[in-house]
Amino acid sequence: MTTARTAAPGDAVRLSGLSKTYGSFTAVHPLDLAVPAGSFFALLGASGCGKTTTLRMIAGLEDPTAGSVALGGQDVTALPPYKRPVNTVFQNYALFPHLDIYENVAFGLRRRGIKSVKQQVGDMLDLVQLGGLARRKPHQLSGGQQQRVAVARALINKPEVLLLDEPLGALDLKLRRQMQLELKRIQTEVGITFIHVTHDQEEAMTMADTVAVMNAGRVEQLGAPADLYENPGSTFVANFLGTSNLIEAEVTGTSGGDVHLVAAGQRLTLPAARCAAEATAGGTVLAGVRPEKIALAHRDDEDAIPEGRNRVPGRIVDSSFIGVSTQYVIDSPVCPELEVFVPNVERDGRLVPGAPVVLHWNPAHTFGLDAAQDIDAGLDADAEEAAHLPAAPGRGGAGKDSAAKDGTAAEAAV
Amino acid sequence: MQTRPMRWLRRNVVVIAGVLALGYLILPNLVVLAFSFNKPKGRYNYTWNHFSTDAWQHPCGVADMCGSLTLSLRLAVYATIGATVLGTMTAFALARYRFRGRAATNMLIFLPMAMPEVVMGASLGTLFLNMRIRFGFWTILIAHIMFCLSFVVVAVKARIMSMDPRLEQAAQDLYATPAQTFLRITLPLAAPGIAAGALLSFALSFDDYIITSFNAGSTVTFPMFVWGSAQRGTPVQVNVIGTAMFVVAVLLVVAGQLVGGRRRGARS
Predict the structure, then answer these.
(1) What percent of chain B lies above the pLDDT cut of 70?
(2) Minimal CA–CA distance to A367: which of A289, A277, A282, A281?
(3) pLDDT tier at A381 (50, 70, 90 boundaries)?
């Protein structure tokens, strides 16, 4: 466990046309996905998007309706879970309540007929910093400690892939942050491929090398966190990952790699390379910009704004001070609710609700999306997830398996 | 303003209620205990005569009594084993699988608990009679397993339903075959339910009179012996056996509490 394994060439996991349907409900549409060995891969999406079902199909806990799962180049679709070289960290951990921590961690080794487990269990408990608690029972540990036991219990088997199903969902915010870093450290240390399922976009972006954003049983977009954030390919990704201001605009023409737009009489420019939609003169696109890229000037100072920047007039509706920045909501002719995050470096006392302002930003920070989609897609996804989380860890979901839960949540969301 | 006795009452009302309830439950047993040391004047052991340990020194001094006691214990052990094994399997089937007749089974399993024992005993007796099965040890055993079964199913099923199915999935994920998963995870987790069902079965079988009397023929179990001898005057030895059973039961409960208490103590 101490030496990091060199990443084997090729993919740790390859899904081909993998799908799952329950009666008339399609949980996962045919999915093709390759996860490179040694990477930290996140499946991100709201409740009911099929991410947990996908994970369970990789583990073998769910039979796919069609398609195949290959681990390290070997087709394992027909193998039962206990014959697959993967291990899972379950939501709410699923630690064996009648066994102590030591026996929980040793479980996988013992089942494979390994007699001398003491050294390995000891090393593993040290790795997750639980050396002194070997003889405690799971219920005697705190949530964060239980989480670490669940990780240790899975990792000790040196699986080809470690699957994590919302492993931090039951922890409070501070502990979650701490465990995110901890998991990232462990992954770097052992070099095993991690597939992490989560609904928390911040968590996915902090931890993963690659994020696949899932929505309604499909992968909506896949890429490095920064890439997804800067260049969302759909309104769902734009709204689900962070906050986006989306402005419906008409295309007036293109020149020298720029797309020229007009929205409510305001001229805007967008780099053609960052436009995910086809931009033909006379058509409509959604021009998007992140709130932190926008600068705010009082209307009186409009002349001081340099040429060549996208600018939009408006009026401050609401402002909230949150320490590092101030968040403004702006009513503007192009959009009734534009969000702007201004870092608190030099605060302009005139920027109070009711003040006339001009928003301006570098055109290079604008991205373009197809206007034919729902502009609000992915907006409520987080709130919905919170409502569907099991109330009590451990016993809450006793009757239902998580696949069924995904299903009912999706139906409830309709 | 409250007077002092009122305040004392308010503070101790729970304890008083507890002691009263305990007295109500234990008093009959204390009478049985006291009269096991009696040397009755005539045949009836209802009035105190004088202290003697005769009955305790010769517990089997009454003809046929210890024979019927052994029979009842044997019956209880077999019925417990039979009902626990069958009931546990039934509970797993009902809790885990969807099959034809599941709803009906689920409902019918409660029937022996809900039906008057006289009705059940009489109908079973009629059945055996019509099938020309000779009454005796085996007919009693079949009857006992039948009514104990429901209690085991109910106890075990409740336990299984409250178990997190992800624990078994976790075991399979950690390379346990279905058989290993059952032995290492499912069975240990269901054990408290199974134990409760078994204890209940033993107690129910050991002291059943009504159903047994319909299906016993000329065989005499301990409850039947006591009932029969009560007509002619209960021998003191019956009190001895009763007291012994009571003490054993209390010791079992205390031992259980101690084990549970130690486990709880280890938590802190």
Answers:
(1) 96
(2) A289
(3) low
Q: From the candidates B159, B166, B172, B173, which should be mutated to test the interface with A, based on the most A CB atoms within 10 A?
A: B173
- Kindly state whether residues A219 and A349 are assigned to the same domain: no
Rounded Cα distance between A156 and A147, Å, is 14
Q: Which among A370, A386, A402 is the end of a domain? A: A370
Q: Is the pTM of this model over 0.95?
A: no
Q: Which of A201, A230, A259 is the last residue of a domain?
A: A230
**In the prediction, which pLDDT does B259 show?**
82
The per-residue pLDDT for A1 is: 38
Query: A105 or A255, which is more confident?
Result: A105
What angle (nearest 5°) sits at the alpha carbon of residue B49, between those of residues B44 and B51?
115
Does B93 map to a domain?
A: yes
Same domain, B143 and B219: yes
> Mean pLDDT over residues A67-95, rounded?
92
Among A108, A140, A395, select the one facing B174 at the smallest CB separation: A108
pLDDT of residue B264: 58
**Whether residue A382 has pLDDT greater than 60:** no
Count of structural domains, chain B: 2
Identify the closest residue of chain A to B177 by CA–CA distance: A82
What is d(CA B241, CA B73) in angstroms, rounded to the nearest whole number?
12
Confidence of residue A7 (pLDDT cuts 50, 70, 90): very low
Answer yes or no: do B90 and B223 share one domain: yes
Candidate from B165, B173, B266 with C-beta closest to A59 = B173
C-alpha radius of gyration, chain A, whole number: 24
Domain extent, residue A342, equals 235-370
Residues of chain A in contact with residue B169, where contact means CB-CB under 8 angstroms, are 61, 81, 90, 94, 401
CATH number at residue A152: 3.40.50.300
Read off the pLDDT of residues A118-141 as tens digits, 9 standing for 90 and up. 999 999 998 888 888 999 999 999
DSSP string, A310-358: EEEEEEEEEEEE-SSEEEEEEEETTEEEEEEEEESSS--TT-STT-EEE
CA dihedral for A76, A79, A82, A88, sign (positive or negative):
positive
- CA–centroid distance for A6 within its chain: 26
Probe site for chain B from A55, A57, A61, A82 (most B CB atoms < 10 A): A82
State how many domains chain A has.
2
User: So what's the ipTM on this one?
Assistant: 0.75
Identity of the residue in B173, B184, B266 whose CB atom sits nearest the CB atom of A87: B173
Distance in Å, alpha carbon of A112 to nearest chain B alpha carbon: 7
